[in-house]
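> forwarded from #structure-qc
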């Protein structure tokens, strides 16, 4: 099977504090979605990279958990996952994503809490976004002046 590619783009106009940008995805789900210094660091209206990473992680993990439960013979009725992305100031300057926390709740008939926890941990180990965030991801860069 060939690699599956997904595409998104971002444009930023201006300097960091006074500038603003838009994010677009090939699917159209993100269409001229605003982001800015205020949306990232001051809770302004719009999105930010960390929120998008958290959304991707929550979605991917929920699917990974559903798949893992299915392989173990358990049919989930509902999986709800909240991902919290921690952006931490670094000294002397800058920020770093230091932690992702997944909070998941599942409705799975006939499954006890301990077994659910074991399967949830196994799913996290196989989640593609979890694994990308852990490291080992190849990043290619093609940079040119316009």
């Amino acid at each position: 099977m060939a690699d599956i590619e997904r595409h998104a783009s971002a444009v930023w106009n201006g300097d960091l504090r006074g500038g603003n940008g838009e994010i677009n995805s090939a699917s159209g789900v993100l269409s001229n979605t605003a982001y800015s210094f205020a949306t990232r660091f001051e809770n302004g209206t719009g999105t930010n990279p960390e929120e998008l990473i958290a959304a991707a992680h929550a979605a991917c993990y929920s699917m990974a958990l559903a798949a893992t439960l299915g392989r173990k013979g358990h049919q989930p009725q509902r999986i709800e996952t909240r991902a919290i992305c921690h952006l931490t100031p670094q000294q002397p300057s800058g920020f770093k994503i230091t932690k992702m926390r997944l909070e998941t709740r599942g409705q799975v008939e006939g499954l006890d809490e301990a077994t659910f926890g074991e399967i949830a941990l196994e799913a996290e180990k196989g989640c593609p976004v979890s694994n990308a965030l852990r490291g080992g991801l190849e990043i290619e860069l093609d940079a040119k002046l316009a």
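QC bot note: The chain has two domains: 7-47, 48-136. The CA atoms of residues 69 and 75 lie 7 Å apart.
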